[in-house]
Amino acid sequence: MKLEENLAEDIKNLLPLFTEEKDTMSLININTDEFIEAQQKSEELAPLIQKIEKGMNNEASDYSLTKGKLLIKSRKDKKGDIRQLLVIPEKFRSSILKMGHEGTSGHLGVTKKKSRIARYFYWPQCYKEIEEFVKTCDPCQRAGKANDQKKAPMQLVPVISEVSSKLNVDAVGPLPTTPTGNKYLLTVMCMASKYPDAVPMPDIASFTVVEALF
Fold first, then answer.
1. Which Enzyme Commission number(s) are listed (predicted)?
2. Rounded alpha-carbon distances, angstroms, from residue 44 to 25, 50, 60, 91, 125
3. Which residues, including other chains, have CB under 8 Å from residue 48's CB and lie 6 or more apart?
4. Starting from the edge strand earliest in sequence, which strands make up the sheet with 121-122, in order?
5. Which residues pair with 141 in a beta bridge?
6. What string of H, E and C letters represents the secondary structure of the chain?
7. What is the per-residue pLDDT across 45-92, written as a single tens digit (0 to 9) for each?
8. Calpha distance 65→10 (Å, rounded)
9. From CA 28, how far away is CA 7, in angstroms rounded?
10. What is the pTM of this model?
11. 13 vs 135: CA distance, rounded Å
């Protein structure tokens, strides 16, 4: 992912290359001071920053401040290594959600979207927001349902070329009784010629249906 030139080095070091595409969107077109100020003014993050500055580490043990006062969160990855996650204030979360989302590497569904963001970024309830974001994205929904096993597999249907070799038969009724006592119709469709026929019947007993057909 390209970063804007005015994005300061200490933020840049925490930002990933989400894709190898050269035309991916930049994260946020701001400088370090603006980003730190947004963290400090955040209703969610400001209390954490204050606790860290006052040495109340027990209540914010996973968080720390860099020399530039940038708030980060420490988290163990699957290998047990400690990762430094950039804590995103409310102002820039939509940019993170959209970042790397377009293009050939985007639209991967909820699980992969969570994985990509969680490797480098964090904010309270971020997983929930990712899920809501993906739910509104049609390509993501299609990607996320690619392995849906509930649908029957597609199969080739043989071409019916011989007349009367395959018939679609159905019974319709009961209908108002005719003067001759019939109140059902046996409908027949030849699948080769598409020729339709309808035979009146008094009932739909097996013998009556066979007699109507032959």
1. 2.7.7.49
2. 27, 11, 12, 12, 11
3. 60, 63, 71
4. 63-65, 71-76, 82-87, 121-122
5. none
6. CCCCCCCCHHHHCCCCCCCCCCCCCCCCCCCHHHHHHHHHHCCCCHHHHHHHHCCCHHHCCCEEECCCCCEEEEEECCCCCEEEEEECCHHHHHHHHHCCCCCCCCCCHHHHHHHHHHCCEECCCHHHHHHHHHHCCHHHHHHHCCCCCCCCCCCCCCCCCCCCCCEEEEEECCCCCCCCCCCEEEEEEECCCCCEEEEEECCCCHHHHHHHHC
7. 888 888 888 877 666 677 887 776 777 777 776 777 777 788 888 888
8. 12
9. 8
10. 0.49
11. 31
Two tokens, residue 60 = 């914010």
Number of residues in the chain = 214
Q: At 54, which amino acid appears?
A: K
Residue 168, token pair as written in the block: 């679609």
Nearest to 17 by CA among 122, 95, 99: 99
Encoded tokens for 108: 């991967």
Q: Are 18 and 100 in contact (CB under 8 A)?
A: yes
